[in-house]
Amino acid sequence: MKKLTALLMVLVLVLSLSACADKGAQEETSEKTEDKGSDTTTVKFWSFHAGGEAEFLEKVVKEYNDTHDDVQIEHTVVNQSDYTTTLIPTAYANGEAPDILYVEPATFTKYAEKGMLADLSPYYTDELKEDILPSALEAVTIDDKIYALPMEMETLGLFYNIDMLKDAGIDPPSTWEELYEAAKKLTTDDVYGLVLPVEEAAYTLFNWWPFMWMAGADVFDDDGNCIVDSKEMVTALDYWGRFYQEGLSPASLQIGPWDIGNVGTGAAAMQVSGTYVINAAENDYPDVNIGVVPLPSPDNNPITVAGGQKLAINAQSQCKDEAADFIFSLYGSDDITKATEWTTEAKFAYPARQSVIDNNSDTFEEGLRAVFTDFYQTAVPEPSYSAEVTDAMGKMLQQVMFGGVSSEEAAKEAQKTIEDAAKN
Amino acid sequence: MKKSNISKRKRREYLTAYAFILPDFLGLFVFVIIPIIYAFYISFFEWDFINDKVFIGAANYIRMWKDTNWWSAMLRTLKLTALYVPLLFGLSLFFAVLISTVKSRAGSFVKTSFLMPFAITSVIASTLWMFLYNEKRGYLNAVFKALGLSNQKFLGSGRQALICVIVVLLWINLGYNMILFLSAIKDIPESYYEAATLDGADRWHIFRYITFPLIRQTSIFILVTTTIASFQVLDLIMVMTKGGPAKATEVGALYIYDRSFNMMEMGYGSALSVFLFLSLLVFSFVQMRITSEEQGENV
């Protein structure tokens, strides 16, 4: 009896402790759709934005609901870090997924391959297809089917503290060698020369891609063969890894690697970050002189990457037409007011549509933005790989950055992992 | 006549007692037992949340057996447990005994101070410690520098990261476990100590032969709960390192999370969870068995 009680007690303890982990997810996904009337279609839309972006979304949802009696958008704001990790997959699993959701390159292929996203091609007009930048459209197309609606392009550049560089007598770097020398010179007991991302995460890969491309390396060749184990990849890895190994870049970060606060607070002299921090660089750190240049390259021929969120529709949705009507009225309509507002007022990003750029040339030439405008049209869309490839590439970087593994070995291992995954 | 009265009252008391437990039990059943049974069920399927589950028998378990990444993650969990549990046990006992001898108001001040970290959510605690651990501008390195020691990378170092996590865990949980020990010590009748002192026992003997044996139940409780908790550390690591640098802090629970949600392999993730759950069960049972056997020898 005593033993049994003991066993029971252990069981209860183990159970109750292991229960804590999933409480959070359950709370957030248990919301139910409210039907306003029998002939009203409710379209569920989940976003995760804050500040000006959230205000914009609230406004457009309200406008849409006020002008539509038969369709109502039910807008729910959820936590961004849970959005792609736990919320969306679990919501799909229990049939509670929103009709409209956001996807980004890191999740796009994974979701599309699993059949989670509806084909939006029927909703695209020919005019719209022509207006959207080819690379942006290509990034959401798989086998001639378009699975998402791009509304923005976020590109990377090198942000730096103008005064720190001036005091050290350094010109803003434009080549790899210059960037390395500058980082070395600017690193002190108190300041990091260059902030690059640290964690094994999609954002780290987003920053890594342009460096990989600039070295002439890639994950797959045009025929889809894995070419990770190449001389060029080793060059890129050697270069990227050096910043961490020599302590020029931090090995652990207190704030996000994207956060311009790294340069803004003086903790770092230079930082790779994107168009999305321009507003913060201007508004949050008015006393700090922050400049930006294109990412340095080996041969003065910079390449940058273009990421950004896209809107997609749930393949299981019962109201795809209504959902499509809403998102296309925002970013896919002939009337480009909303599409313009999103990229120029709600946030700063490059619009995915040529007409928006042409109509707002002033905005895109203002201050720090001009630097990006000069080269963003040549930006390469952020690639969207399967979970296995992303995992292998993320691990390869970590091994070189912090694992004491040589670039050759890490590249070889990633090549093998990707090839093995393709076989299964 | 009198007897049946008592049993009737007893029965009613039992009923009331069970009625009080019922809501808790229902909650436990719906939110804990059913999900665990379901996880066990899913562990025999290949399931990506979206498409239909495919029954694959024990394939997930076979895959687990061959998954070297999983075993290195589990090894990290064991390392964490082996360091954390004895440290927490020893330190909270040490401070409890120390504070129990302080009879003034300072005692309750110290107690409250120790307990404070426990009231802070782990995410905030992790964020606070990241300030301390910061390589260039952190307070710890400032102290190190003042002592003439070299700058440390802490969370950024593959060797130190796991230890840094353990330190934060200790900081959070020390106070709570100390209070548990303290209240157990308080329950020991003062006369035992008086008698021992009269017999000329020194402080070590008093601790060894009076305090420690008499707080055995609490000790077992703390050992078991701490071991279980150490297997499930996830939030701190998610905030501080996300498993890095280079997987140095990727413990079993984090690997399960990654497989289940990032890779959307819920079936495999469930199989790993079931394994973790069963190993915890065995581990805890053995732990209790050993400690209760010891009890038999002593008495």
Relevant terms:
heterodimer, A: 424 residues, alpha/beta, D-Maltodextrin-Binding Protein, domain 2, 2 domains, six-stranded mixed beta sheet, three-stranded antiparallel beta sheet, 18 helices, 48% helix, globular, B: 299 residues, mainly alpha, MetI-like fold, two-stranded antiparallel sheet, 13 helices, 77% helix
Structural write-up:
- By secondary structure, chain A is of the alpha/beta class.
- Chain A has two domains: 38-153 and 308-375, 3-Layer(aba) Sandwich (D-Maltodextrin-Binding Protein, domain 2); 155-306 and 386-423, D-Maltodextrin-Binding Protein, domain 2.
- Helices cover 48% and strands 13% of the residues of chain A.
- Chain A contains 18 helices and 13 strands.
- In chain A, the strands form four sheets. In chain A, strands 7, 8, 9, 10, 11 and 13 form a six-stranded mixed sheet that branches.
- In chain A, a hairpin with a 2-residue loop joins β4 (141-142) and β5 (145-146).
- In chain A, α2 packs antiparallel against α14 and α17 runs antiparallel to α18 (407-423).
- Chain A is globular and about 65 Å long.
- The model of chain A is unreliable at 15-36 (pLDDT under 50).
- With 299 residues, chain B is an all-alpha fold.
- Chain B has one domain (68-298): MetI-like fold.
- In chain B, strands 1-2 form a two-stranded antiparallel ribbon.
- The two termini of chain B are 41 Å apart.
- Classes of the chains: A alpha/beta (424), B mainly alpha (299).
- Chains A and B meet through α1, α3 and α17 of A and α1, α5, α10, α12 and α13 of B.
